[in-house]
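Weekly modeling sync, notes
Attendees: S.R. (lead), two postdocs, one rotation student

Agenda item 3: backlog of single-chain predictions. S.R. asked that every request posted to the team notebook include the full sequence so nobody has to chase files. The rotation student volunteered to paste the first one in as an example of the format we agreed on. Action items at the bottom.

Example entry:
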Amino acid sequence: MGCIVEGTAPLDERTGENDLAPSLRKIIHVDMDAFFASVEQRDNPELRGKPVAVGGSGGRGVVAAASYEARKFGVRSAMPSVTAKRLCPDLIFVRHRFDAYKEASRQIRRIFEHHTPHVEPLSLDEAYLDVTEDRLGIGSATRIAELIRQEIKAKTRLTASAGVSYNKFLAKLASDQNKPDGLCVIRPGQGAQFVAGLPIRRFHGVGPKAEEKMKRLGIETGADLAEKDIAFLRANFGSFADYLYRAARGIDLRPVRAHRVRKSVGGERTFSEDISSGALLRETLENTIEYVWESIERAKARGRTVTLKVKFNDFKNMTRSKSATHWVETREEFAAISRALLEEALPLPMPIRLMGLTLSNLEGAQAAESEQRDDAQLSLL
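Predicted structure, as returned to the notebook:
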């Protein structure tokens, strides 16, 4: 499907014959493999090769991340811990260590910046890189992706998967194609063909409920989606239609945005399964608070408004905000406001597929490392 698996197709670095056409953007999407769980296995040899879940093991616990050994049993992020334990009786739970994950993320970021200043982080464990013009003059995006993966393994003892293509949408799809520890390249002219063969569930933003609706409409693959005109998609999917129409054709014109002063600092998390339980929502909120506060500290930001966002399984959004009369400067205050917003919203009218937090009305934010956009996700996989 247009992929080159590392080691199966040698590169000609003089001609770049296995690389992207020079007139197009050269985009790499790097995604760490089971990042949180892999850090735990790296730091504790007794966990290596065993099914591991990061998260609480109690009755109200939720899986934040699962090792590949655990995933073989069906264990997934955002899954109740009791369900995960039932699927995998030998599952080992470990509490999260965000400081360790942040340090590994900083090491990985330095490797990215060795090759290009155009780095757009999506979360601690994934980022887009524009290497159309790279710092070392290598020229080949495929070769750069290979070098980055090698450097990450050598310096952090962790593995990463990478996708290389001429736009962000395709690069992200490609990075997931040969996981774990894989490489995939989608070249110019191959995007639409690659997308055509994918199950619709692989499209970013298409969750279980959307997949179910699409199947009722006869849409099971990218090729099925490409057959539908924009009027049909808008009638059935509303504002989501324009994205679906472009995605089915492998089109994505978004640039990699590395440095931009932002009006808010935030993060979102899309769940592998819809969540309705208050206990699971509270646990997920705590993980989101940790991630978002790390971004706030990194941006040296102060803000007055905290906003909670949830997306229901029918793709409708709900937001709740609270503004303080003073600057929110501590994690404790940010967390307290976030928790209060969630409690005010409970019970929710239907299950949700996404949760996000932002701090806005900022003052003192430096040039942002990444802009919070509707496609930015907190990935804990």
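Discussion: group reviewed the output briefly. The CA atoms of residues 10 and 246 lie 32 Å apart.
Action items: rotation student to repeat for the remaining queue; S.R. to check formatting next week.
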